[in-house]
Amino acid sequence: MRLLRLWPDGTKFDFMRFRRLSFPFSALLSIATIVVFLTMGLNFGVDFKGGTLMELQAKSAQADVAKVRQTANSFGFGEVEVQEFGNAGGVSLRFPVQPGGEAAQSAVVQKTREAFGADYTFSRVETVGPRVSGELVQSGTIGVILSVLAVMLYLWFRFEQELALGAIIGTLHDIVLALGFFVITRHEFNMTSIAAILTIVGYSLNETVVVFDRTRELMRRYKSIPTEELLNLSINSTMSRTVMTATAAFLSLLALVLFGGRAIEGFAQVMLCGVVICTYSAIFISTPVLIYIGLRVGARDPTKRAALPQAAE
Amino acid sequence: MLRFSTSKIVGTLAIVLIGLLLAVPSMLTREQRDGLKASVPGWVPSWLVPTRAIVLGLDLQGGSHVLLEVDMPDLMRAQTVQLRDDVRRVLRETSVSPEGGIQTLPRGVQLRVSDPNARARLLPKLRELSQPISNAILGQTGARTLDLNEQPDGPIQLVFTDQGVNERVRRAVDQAIEVLRRRIDALGTTEPSIQRQGADRILVQVPGLQDPQRLKEILGKTAKLEFRMLAEPGSSDADLLPSRDANGQRVPVERRVMVEGGDLTDAQPGFDSRTSEPIVNFRFNLRGAQRFGQATTENVGRPMAIVLDNEVISSPRILQPITGGSGQISGRFTVQQANDLAVLLRAGALPAKLTIVEERTVGPGLGRDSIEAGKMATLVATALVVAFMFATYGLFGLFANIALLIHVGLIFGLMSVLEATLTLPGIAGIVLTIGTAVDSNVLIYERIREEAHAGRSIVSAIQAGFERAFATIIDSNSTMAIAALILFFLGSGPVRGFAVVFVLGILTTVITAVTMTRMMIALWYRWARPKALPF
Q1: Domains in chain B, start-ordered, CATH in brackets?
Q2: Element (H, E) at A146
Q3: Are domains A15-43+133-302 and A51-128 of this chain identical in fold?
Q4: Which of A138, B32, B148, B460 could make a disulfide contact with B28, Cβ separation 3.0–4.6 Å?
Q5: What are the C-alpha distances in Å from A120 to residues A67, A93, B339?
Q6: Mean pLDDT throughout B388-410?
Q7: Calpha distance B495→A53 (Å, rounded)
Q8: Which residues of A are less than 8 Å from B384 in CB distance?
């Protein structure tokens, strides 16, 4: 039986040369992301913005969106975003947070239920008051910052400083681009999105760490190898694994995008895009950036070397 | 390294088997589980039979998640009124009358007494109103509920201390949980969960509810019932309250409360025998019956005011003294409203108003769709990854696939033992771990290939592959685990469900991908004695 090989053995590809392309490309992309982030902003969901989200399902499998929009806007609860979804009469309504504190929010749900209860069933209702949404913003932000700090700490103990710095740069790059994906696609940004971002942080480091583990190993084996050559060798020798893992993760997430249903679609798409970003950045950003950070081949911290298991000869 | 002792093999298999067996109850329905429990012969110890199962999150099961918060201004107002009544009683007992009455402050009361004799009589009694706060862990904390401030010729102030306020909030939440439990139990739903959250919040989760709006109505009502008298128009000692009899217009009601809802022993919905209008029949306890009898005797011919949550729901004229201790409330109710009011009155009043600060409801239809979609995605993801691994690594791919399936089984087993909640993001987590779990196998296999290409013998290549890949596996899984753990501690509900799956997935992947695969390869090597790697 002939087996599948996605990446040929023993490649000597010069990945480092691509930094002249990938660095400006990523820099441009990151700046563009920051610009759209600041101008368009994230499409915050009710988790972070407060307000009410409702999903209605027409009992006749045919929704009259225009009428729903007209009726919902006549309630006087501010501008209502009305969208159709699926093809069996699904309508989603998003009301802004109501002035008048926590108690004022319930009126929205009650009014909408009274107005549409006869023709629609309510498949989802989410109401978040201003105080709770404030707290969720806080815990979401703390979560992202804390996880980046915790991972930094781990890298600091486990790897040489230069490698740790490279990994952090790559991870920040991935977070920025993932946020950019949210801005461009207008996917709702909510608590699940924070989970997606944190998973991307984990995956991004996973990819980088595998390459850097090899870099560290090669540094010990070849004491006087030029940095560029060392990094090229690290990537080439781990490339078949990188391709394999990225493909497996991509396939499983593709299944999630295609079959996971609407409720998880956004999360799955972001993760799918995240896998691509993370694989790219591990090869073309966090590794070549070590050339500029100045990886000192030869003068290594002997204590960190001892932490590695010695290969059985 | 490729030598696996028989005991080690048996041990590994036993652990895997136990792990997979633990997942069995989660695959069964509740009835099947109970049937299983009943069919086990008596001589088998009960702890040997796995009965714990995964709990489906509200987003999969359908149901309502309602977060309520104690309305602090309302609670403080109620506490201040209580304090004012206490002070009034003390004043009566010591026969002191303050100049200008008792003024209420935002967090207490104040009064002026300039006569030094009266002050000397009054102050020790007022001090007794302040109670020590005891703590379950520390015992007596030395803190008291009230501060008494006085200057020789200034006003006397009684103000709640911070600890006093916290203590009241804590007690209010405890009481409210009890009341809410009685109310929700009356709805007849299965397995509601009512938990304290933080200092002043209560989280109510009710799965599989048909009418979430009704739940909210039942949760949100304070249900404070008072029997008072309608006051003469222009009376000074009266509150102006909206009246249902007067179509929402405000009517004067005497401040004095004759009997309260707390003195009710029973309330049942019924119909008025003459008008067949839905009503609520109630019965007082002994104290309530006495007071009600006395008050109605004194006020024959005058209109009474039945006040529910500061609204006059009806104002019947007292035709004769009601001494039997029972009566009825009418208030233009629908049958459902009369029913709910009876439930609320039986369960008792909340100590303060509760505000809904968050509500998340998923209809049962959407939940079912999500489960189906999740199953489908999991199956397709598994099929794709399994085919991909087999196409790439052949026999070794098969080993990795067996390990992968066991890995998913173990996640379910661990979640069952922990009775963890499976949410929609949790299903996404399972699908994602299917993709990432093979990473460890890929790391090992690629390393084995490399070592073989470098000229090692097959045994030596396999050995080196496992050993050298191990450090990398630990590093890469640790970074993932850190992110997932933080998510677990910060997230709530569905997101936490994702974190649980992810953390468990990282734990089991190390067992299955490293130990299980190594064992399978060792057994295969012993049996086949291959001359070359199969991939």
Answers
A1: 6-27+54-62+365-528 (1.20.1640.10), 63-134+142-212 (no CATH), 221-350 (3.30.1360.200)
A2: helix A130-158
A3: no
A4: B32
A5: 13, 12, 26
A6: 93
A7: 18
A8: 251-252, 254-255
Report yes or no: B339 and B268 within 8 Å, Cβ to Cβ: no
Q: What's the CA gap between B424 and B497, in Å, rounded?
A: 8
- CB < 8 Å from B in window 3-42 of A: 3-6, 9-10
* B46-90 per-position pLDDT tens digit: 777 778 888 888 888 888 999 999 988 888 888 888 888 888 888
Q: To which H or E segment does residue A12 belong?
A: none
Mean pLDDT of A32-51: 92
CB B266 within 8 A of CB B288: no
Token look-up 């070849």 returns A222
Substitution target in B1, B3, B357, B388 with the highest count of A β-carbons within 10 Å is: B357
Contact A124 B363 (CB under 8 A): yes
**Pair B50, B21: CB distance under 8 Å:** yes
- Position A297 scores a pLDDT of 53
- CB-based contact, A268 to chain B, within 8 Å: yes
Thinking of the domain A15-43+133-302, which architecture would CATH place it in?
Up-down Bundle (1.20)
- Test A205 with B480 for CB contact under 8 angstroms: yes
Q: Which residue has the higher pLDDT, B416 or B38?
A: B416
Contact criterion met (CB < 8 Å) for B482 and A150: yes
Specify the DSSP element, H or E, that contains A19. Answer: helix A19-39
Question: Using CB atoms, which residue from A113, A146, A191 is nearest to B213?
Answer: A113
Count CB-CB contacts under 10 A for residue B157.
18
Nearest chain B residue to A139 by CA: give it.
B490
Q: Is B443 close to A210, i.e. CB distance below 8 A?
A: yes
Q: Is A113 an 8 Å CB contact of chain B?
A: yes
| Domain-wise residue ranges, chain A | 15-43+133-302, 51-128
Please tell me whether the overall predicted TM-score, pTM, comes out greater than 0.90 for this model. no
Round to the nearest angstrom and report the end-to-end CA distance of chain A.
32
Rounded to an integer, what distance in angstroms lies between the CA atom of residue A208 and that of residue A163?
A: 9
Using one digit for the tens of pLDDT, what is the confidence trace for B81-114? 888 888 888 888 888 888 888 888 888 898 888 8
Percent with pLDDT over 70 in chain B: 98
CATH architecture of the domain A51-128 equals: 2-Layer Sandwich (3.30)
- Of B252, B254, B236, B238, residue with least CA distance to B298: B254
